[in-house]
């Protein structure tokens, strides 16, 4: 009888521990990166060029690091100019100077397309 109690008690203990662990994992929160400083601040074009020129070196430098990448995300908008414009006018905190710079780029491209 005591052997049976030990086995049942062990099973109950394992189930209780599994339940507590599951509850902990279910209710944990994701850490925010708002208070974390980037290890590297790099331009998107420079980052791509670094990977193209020497992928192994770039992996050693950037892998498992926090990067602050500045530049245009070309493929995110699936080629849709409307999604692109909507994103940069509503969803970002671009300054007026940055928006004017973006406007100049778009106007230059429009001028090139008309030729």
Describe what you observe in this structure:
The protein has 3 domains: 1-30; 36-71, no CATH class; 72-115. The chain has helices spanning 2-27, 44-53, 55-62, 81-91, 96-114; strands at residues 40-43, 67-70. The protein is mostly helical and 115 residues long. The N and C termini lie far apart (93 Å). The protein has 5 helices and 2 strands, in the order αβααβαα. A two-stranded parallel ribbon has the order 1-2. Helices cover 64% and strands 7% of the residues.
* Radius of gyration based on Cα positions: 26 Å
Strand order of the largest sheet: 1-2
- What is the share of helical residues? 55-70%
Note the total helix count: 5
Biggest sheet layout = 2 strands, parallel
Write the layout of secondary structure elements.
Elements lengths: L1 H26 L12 E4 H10 L1 H8 L4 E4 L10 H11 L4 H19 L1
Parallel strand pairs: 1-2
Helix pairs in contact: 2-3
List keywords for this structure.
single chain; 115 residues; mainly alpha; 3 domains; two-stranded parallel ribbon; 5 helices; 2 strands; elongated
In short:
With 115 residues, the chain is mostly helical. The chain is 64% helix and 7% strand. The protein is built from five helices and two strands; from the N terminus they run αβααβαα.
């Amino acid at each position: 009888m005591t052997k049976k109690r030990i086995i049942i008690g062990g099973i109950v203990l394992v189930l209780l521990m599994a339940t507590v662990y599951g509850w902990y994992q279910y209710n944990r929160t994701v850490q925010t990166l708002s208070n974390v400083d980037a290890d590297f601040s790099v331009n998107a074009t420079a980052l791509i060029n670094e990977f193209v020129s020497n992928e192994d070196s770039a992996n050693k430098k950037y892998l498992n690091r926090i990067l602050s990448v500045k530049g245009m995300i070309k493929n995110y908008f699936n080629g849709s100019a409307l999604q692109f414009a909507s994103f940069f006018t509503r969803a970002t905190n671009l300054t007026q100077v940055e928006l004017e710079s973006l406007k100049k780029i778009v106007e230059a491209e429009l001028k090139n397309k008309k030729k």
